[in-house]
Amino acid sequence: MSYTYILECSDGTLYCGWTNDIEKRIRTHNAGKGAKYTRTRLPVKLVYSESFDTKEEAMSREWHIKRLSRREKLRLIGSAGRSCQHPAGVSQI
Q1: C-beta atoms surrounding 50 within 10 Å
Q2: Using only C-alpha atoms, what is the Rg of the chain?
Q3: Among positive and negative, which fits the CA dihedral 49, 50, 52, 57?
Q4: Which residues in 34-46 are b (16+ Cβ under 10 Å) and which e?
Q5: Which domains does the chain have, with CATH numbers?
Q6: d(CA 57, CA 51)
Q7: What is the pTM assigned to this prediction?
Q8: How far does CA 16 lie from the centroid of its chain?
Q9: Is 74 exposed, middle or buried (0-12, 13-18, 19+ CB in 10 A)?
Q10: How many CA atoms within 13 Å lie on the side-chain side of 14?
């Protein structure tokens, strides 16, 4: 299973990425060892995720989400509401 995810950083900005282990990836980000962008914006929290069967699908979805405007990303996050599936043990809004 692979995931595309959106994090909200401590400064309110959004970060989008993909991974095959979302729980580990969030811990890595919050340990300051994730993406360069998030290192200075800790802590981060998971606000959106989608699961896919292949990494290629997750990477493609990440590419598409990164091209959305902030307003469109917030709409995507908001439209998921409670239907957004977060893996057990991963913090969310």
Answers
A1: 19
A2: 12
A3: negative
A4: beeebeebeebeb
A5: 2-83 (3.40.1440.10)
A6: 9
A7: 0.84
A8: 5
A9: middle
A10: 20
With 0-12 CB in 10 A as exposed, 13-18 as middle and 19+ as buried, what is 78? exposed
pLDDT digits (tens, 9 = 90+) for 8-49: 999 999 999 999 999 999 999 999 998 999 999 999 999 999
Match 């980000």 to its residue by tokens. Answer: 29
Helical H segments across 6-93, by residue range: 22-30, 36-39, 55-66, 70-80
Nearest C-alpha neighbor of 14 from the set 39, 40, 47: 47
What's the number of CA atoms in the CB half-sphere (13 Å) around residue 6?
Answer: 26
Tokens of residue 80, six digits: 């998921």
Token readout for 10 is: 């401590």
